[in-house]
Amino acid sequence: MEIDYIALFVTNVERSLIFYRDVLGFRFDKPAKPDSAEGYSGKLKIGLYDRAWLPKLFGDRGEQKISGNPFLLSMSVENLDQVYQELSDRQSLYPVNMIAPPRVMPWGQRILFLSDPDDNLLEIVQSSTASTDN
To answer: From 79, 87, 104, 126, which residue has the greatest number of CB atoms within 10 Å?
Structure first.
């Protein structure tokens, strides 16, 4: 078994589409709808859905309160410093909430923590094949 699809329930699909497509570089081949957009991060399919979908999908359970940071979405890159610089350079066009700059964690991984427009927690991890000297 493997994960092949992630659905994010967001407060503003257009804003989230801009973030995931234009800031993080995910691929969205089909035109977005007002209440949804589907795209890819590598081979993993990702869906952005307006939170109004929750009651449609889950009935009464869709009325449960949703808070930020219920999960962590992790991405890996070859050059974390380059990605950090690119995100920093885009701040005037696409503000990104960077929680912490790239740092080496106690277990040895270099990670950049940030959040999406709905305050979902994201991490960008330096792939293990790249240098971890910093």
So the answer is: 126
**Residue written as tokens 């106690």?**
106
Q: What is the pTM of this model?
A: 0.80
- Residue 27 contacts residue 42 (beta carbons within 8 Å): no
Give, for 72, the enclosing helix (H) or strand (E): strand 72-77
Do both 118 and 89 map to the same domain? yes
Domain residues for 26?
5-63
The per-residue pLDDT for 77 is 94
- Based on the domain organization, do 105 and 79 belong to the same domain? yes
- Half-sphere exposure (Cβ direction) of 124: Cα atoms closer than 13 Å: 24
Half-sphere exposure of 34 (CA within 13 A, CB side): 1
